[in-house]
Amino acid sequence: MIEIEKVPSPCYVLDADLLRENLRLIADVRRRSGAEIILAFKAFAMWSAFPIIREYFGKSTASSLCEARLAYEELGSLAHTYSPAYTDREFDTIAACSSHITFNSLTQLEHFAPKVLQYDDHKISIGLRVNPEYSEVETDLYNPCAPGSRLGVVASQLPAKLPEYVEGLHFHTLCESDSTDLEKTLAAFESRFAQWILQVKWVNMGGGHLMTRKGYNVDLLVDLISRFCERWKVDVILEPGSAFAWDTGVLVASVVDIVENGGIKTAILNVSFACHMPDCLEMPYKPRIRGAHFDPVEGLPTYRMGGNSCLSGDYVGDWSFDQPLKIGDRIVFEDMIHYTTVKTTMFNGVSHPSMAIWDAKHGLRVVREFGYEDYKRRMS
Questions:
Q1: N or C of the chain: less Cβ packing under 10 Å?
Q2: Alpha carbon of 379 to those of 1, 45, 372, 373: distances in Å?
Q3: What is the DSSP letter of 283?
Q4: What confidence tens digit (pLDDT) does each residue in 31-61 have?
Q5: Domain count along the chain
């Protein structure tokens, strides 16, 4: 376990031993199901940890030119790339860094497919994203199949015969979901797209398969994939992100001040929910704090956690503690690696947490610290 007292504050700390536990589980799913499983950078792109990732997995999915370059330059492989919209200015570089390119619309497919077909450096497999019009995700911000979604082509818009160069279909409907949700999605996907599944070589089932979460039905996932492959005679690709880095690290913060207003005590921290834990406000969700009671306990010292930006809504609460908090106390937010580290901002110029990796054998290694020059370059 990470020795918190040795960690600078604020700092994200990835536990390499916990990461390897997740990687071993995911690798076992790959072995048992026959699926190709690749890392989604949109959830975890800490490239200083890629040497660990490469012990088990060598491929990734990218959603932009920058992610495609990261796959090629730092992970050392061509990316499976999908973007809601490619531009002419960036497309040639994306193609150079990609083994698969999936298009979001028929318009984008028709515009860029000729370039892909003429590309002679390496073969690129072309895919099309489709929308099964079914998802169990309740928060619209994270629901790719919400009414009016811009993501993917619905069945009624597809021609009866796909262009021969289209080799794959891609759908994404999940968000930190169980395999029972995939089971329902597959029923919708197969009922709407059966005639087109017969025309392709691979199906990418997207991300959101949270197979490393306690209680996830891994056996059902393996069974669903195996039977799908047998039924349709296609290869299956999964691109989870959260599952790779689920519960593998923390954000270490400190109490800078304690203020009280209207009977509410707020511990003001040296981190910001808006800048450093945006999903807490977007989903929203309340993170776990090490050593704290998740729900307020009557009679115990109770505090709201406040960020250090000027945004009035930069807070989440409330937690109870066995002892009153003091200025300088450490606050350790659990499970703060996936999606958190990739979505941070430098809003307000607040000090950005450092990045570190911990393992039991070598201890703590701070891999990146941020300062004024990072903010200045970001603001141009």
A1: C
A2: 37, 22, 11, 10
A3: T
A4: 999 999 999 999 999 999 999 999 999 999 9
A5: 2
